[in-house]
């Protein structure tokens, strides 16, 4: 009997998620292969590099992290299980769809939706003040100057001193005016200026999502650009 139990024990140990989980990056990589993700979502991993991006932002498994505007939950499906046991994951702005579906199931049942469930940005308040990190992915371009200011100020207020603000978005040429092709792009220099005006300090930037063959000329949804757009990746910090 023992000779049959021993291989079974080894196999069980190798596949048990709670035994495999180690560093935060390990947890993200486990979430990346989860059956809760669709093939379409998994196919974007190579381009979006979630493990490397979150490592650059310094996210750890015991942090309190807010994702702004989660959309369909691409990053939510990775961050929620990775933070479930030791940290706390929050969502805000445009969260109703996920609250009614994904967040009713494990391992997403501990996610907390805070602040507006819609996109009401006037006097925006996330109703927390002790977060370790606020993250937003490919959303900054969606808002006008006043709305961006409101989001940046609310992110600043929600973070504890020393907390970080990570922003990723499609790159627009510096000082280029908005046109029919660049509406879903944003000037990274302007983003830095606006976020610093909210009180943040620029800590670092990454070229993880730099694409040398994106000429910054065309809409990011075009077949020649989709999945290959140049994106800026900026890390800010609330002064201690």
Describe the 3D structure.
The protein has 240 residues and is of the alpha/beta class. Helices cover 33% and strands 18% of the residues. The chain is built from ten helices and seven strands. The chain has a seven-stranded mixed beta sheet with strand order 3-2-1-4-5-7-6. α9 links the parallel β4 (131-137) and β5 (159-170). α3 (24-32) packs antiparallel against α6 and α3 (24-32) crosses α7 (76-83). The protein is globular, with a radius of gyration of 19 Å.
Order of helices and strands: HHHHHHEHEHEEHEHEE
Helical fraction equals 25-40%
* DSSP summary, beta strand count: 7
What structural class results from the helix and strand content? alpha/beta
Q: What's the helix count?
A: 10
What would the principal axes of the Cα set say about the shape?
A: globular
- Please, what is the average pLDDT? 91
Attribute tags:
disordered N terminus, 240 residues, 7-stranded mixed beta sheet, alpha/beta, 10 helices, globular, 7 strands, single chain
Topology summary:
Layout lengths: L1 H14 L1 H4 L3 H9 L6 H5 L1 H4 L1 H7 L7 E5 L7 H8 L4 E5 L3 H4 L12 E2 L17 E7 L7 H14 E12 L17 H10 L3 E6 L24 E7 L3
Parallel strand pairs: 1-2, 1-4, 2-3, 4-5
Antiparallel strand pairs: 5-7, 6-7
Helix pairs in contact: 3-6, 3-7
């Amino acid at each position: 009997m023992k000779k049959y139990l021993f291989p079974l024990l080894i196999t069980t140990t190798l596949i048990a998620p709670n035994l495999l989980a180690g560093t935060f990056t390990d947890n993200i990589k486990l979430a990346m292969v989860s059956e809760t993700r669709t093939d379409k979502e998994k196919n974007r991993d190579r381009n979006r590099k979630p493990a490397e991006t979150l490592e650059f932002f310094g996210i750890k498994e015991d942090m309190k992290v807010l994702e702004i505007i989660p959309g369909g939950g691409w990053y939510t499906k990775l961050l929620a299980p990775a933070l479930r046991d030791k940290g706390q994951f929050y969502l805000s702005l445009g969260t109703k769809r996920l609250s009614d579906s994904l967040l009713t199931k494990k391992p997403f049942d501990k996610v907390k939706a805070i602040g507006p469930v819609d996109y009401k940005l006037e006097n925006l308040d996330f109703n927390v003040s002790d977060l370790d990190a606020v993250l937003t992915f490919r959303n900054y371009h969606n808002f006008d100057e006043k709305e961006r200011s409101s989001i940046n100020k609310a992110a600043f207020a929600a973070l504890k001193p020393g907390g970080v603000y990570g922003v990723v978005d499609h790159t627009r040429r510096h000082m280029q005016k908005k046109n029919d092709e660049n509406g879903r792009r944003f000037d990274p220099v302007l983003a830095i200026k606006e976020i610093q005006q909210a009180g943040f300090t620029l800590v670092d930037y990454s070229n993880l999502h730099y694409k040398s063959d994106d000429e910054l000329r065309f809409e990011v949804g075009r077949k020649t650009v989709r999945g290959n757009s140049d994106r800026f990746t900026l890390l800010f910090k609330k002064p201690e």
